[in-house]
Amino acid sequence: MSSLEINNLHLWYGAFHALRGVDLSIGEGDFLALVGPSGCGKTSLLRSIAGFVHALDKKLRIQMQTELQLLQKRLGVTAVFVTHDQEEAMAMADRIAIMRDGELEQLGTPKEIFTAPRTPWAAEFIGSGNVLKGRVLAGENGKTAIDLG
Predict the structure, then answer these.
(1) For residues 136 and 146, what is the distance between their CA atoms, to the nearest angstrom?
(2) C-beta of residue 126 within 8 angstroms of C-beta of residue 120
(3) What is the rounded distance in angstroms from the CA atom of residue 97 to the CA atom of residue 104?
(4) What integer pLDDT is reported at residue 19 of this predicted model?
(5) What share of the chain is helix, strand, coil (3-state, %, to 5)?
(6) CA 122 to CA 76: how far, in whole Å?
(7) Which of 35-39, 45-49, 84-88 tops mean pLDDT?
(8) Which of 6, 69, 92, 131 sits CB 3.0–4.6 Å from 24 for a disulfide?
């Protein structure tokens, strides 16, 4: 039984055909070493497996996300996923660490990050449409009013 199955993988960098129909099966618990001379495709293959190749058409990317999640849950391993795609992070992760200028801006579940961003920058970055500028006014009967003007 394979933990990873690659079938007919092609990768192009512009006109350069970096990977040409790679088929590879990696068994559960295997430790595979990719070897070969510089420029043979080792790093391109590794980047493809890791999801760093700009990382695939939307349909294939969603399939890869699902497979990664199922594999991670089935094996019960700890996983760290790096992406520039906020939507992808929100869909895949149990928790999200938002980084900014070498610091951790916010750490939380996708729901926490989206509904309660800690800073305006985090809200803008994650794409929250709930950033409003205004001021809180005293309300009546225990209710609060916000002046958006």
Answers:
(1) 5
(2) no
(3) 7
(4) 92
(5) 30, 30, 40
(6) 30
(7) 45-49
(8) 6
DSSP state letters, 24-37: EEEETT-------S
- Using alpha carbons, select from 127, 45, 57, 119 the residue that is nearest to residue 86: 127
Neighbouring CB atoms inside 10 A of 56's CB total 15
Q: Which of 89, 121, 94, 92 is nearest to 106 (CA)?
A: 121
The reply to whether the predicted model has a pTM over 0.85 is no
Backbone angles phi, psi at 2, to 5 degrees: -95, 145
pLDDT tens-digit readout, 86-134: 888 888 888 998 988 878 899 999 999 988 889 888 888 887 566 677 7
Please state the separation of Cα 124 from the chain's center in Å: 17
The candidate with the shortest Cα–Cα distance to 51, out of 79, 21, 17, is 79
Centre a 10 Å sphere on the Cβ of residue 82 and count the other Cβ atoms it contains.
9
Token pair recorded at residue 81: 């996923």
Structure confidence at residue 56 (pLDDT) = 62
Residue 21: per-residue pLDDT: 92
Distance separating alpha carbons of residues 85 and 62, to the nearest angstrom: 12
